[in-house]
Amino acid sequence: MNISARKYIILLLSFFFLSSIAFISCRRRHVSEREREETKRKAEVSKAKALISSIKDIHYTEVKRTFDNGLSFSPVGYQLIPEWRISFPSDDSVNIYSPRKKKFLNTPVVFDHDSIYNVAWAWLKLKYIKKDSIQFMVLHVDGRVINDEKVHAYMTFYTNDYIKNVLHSDTANFWKPSKRDTDYIKAKSLAANKILDSAFAGTTPPVLRARSPLVTVKKEVVHDGDVNGDMLFDNYLSPTYDITIHHAYTDFYYSYTAFLDDKGKITFRKSMVPLNYLSKEGAEAYIAAMKGITDGYLKLYLDVTPASTLGIPHSSIIFLNVTGTKK
Fold first, then answer.
1. Which of 34, 80, 136, 305 is an S-S bond match for 72, by CB 3.0 to 4.6 Å?
2. What are the tens digits of pLDDT across the range 207-226?
3. 45: exposed, middle or buried (Cβ count in 10 Å: 0-12, 13-18, 19+)
4. Is 84 left (phi over 0), alpha (psi -120 to 50) or beta?
5. What CA–CA distance (Å, rounded) separates 24 from 300?
6. CB-CB neighbours of 111 under 10 Å
7. What is the pTM of this model?
């Protein structure tokens, strides 16, 4: 074997030797990282369970629920309502009151990470635990990914003992709207009553009543769920009315939205059915028909009570499914 061949073999063996050492070192590093992560995760779980255990069997009532800006109303009129009553009988379950069943239900509590818990099927981040109160931030989670771009809500709880024996109050006093909320709704109502495009949903939705036997009106109702009403707020955010007009000029069906001002006047807003499949003339005729039904039948045959929030009437948007029958 010549010198060049020996050098080549020595270099090749050195390369494999160094590569093996590097592989073993890398593998050990990855194993070590996994072990550290697992140790960290176990420590977080232990700490999370200890936090829940520290408030075991203490009964709490939610006293305030607000957005990031401290208000309980959103720009569209959605109102956050404090309504939870909870206690933690163990570190992995919560008793939460069901208004519909009028009793406490036991649901799971699952810790995820970074003070984030799934409580009664809602994702919450524990902000603090104090002697007489706790606070959670409600998270928006899509496919186990937190969406931080959305506005968050904060739920503040006091212990029942603190409310009764220290504050000498009751829950109803805490659930009253704040001065900031009242001022906010007054300003929004004033704007909405001047400009219809500023209309917003009233927590007390409009009431539409037929003043003639030729018309029937039925408001669609979303029923509440076991714990927090499911989509109960749709009853006022999207108040929907099924209206049937008998002995109409022809058979028809239209689905559209309308403005309803603070005086009870109904004004056509837009079709709920896409009109891009129609010609320009066809779309104009379709819209004209809905405007005619609104200005003719509805204004003639309906008595209307406008929407209101905190007792203040204001312009809002209503959803209408209007059916006409010649019979």
1. 80
2. 999 999 999 999 988 766 55
3. middle
4. beta
5. 86
6. 20
7. 0.79
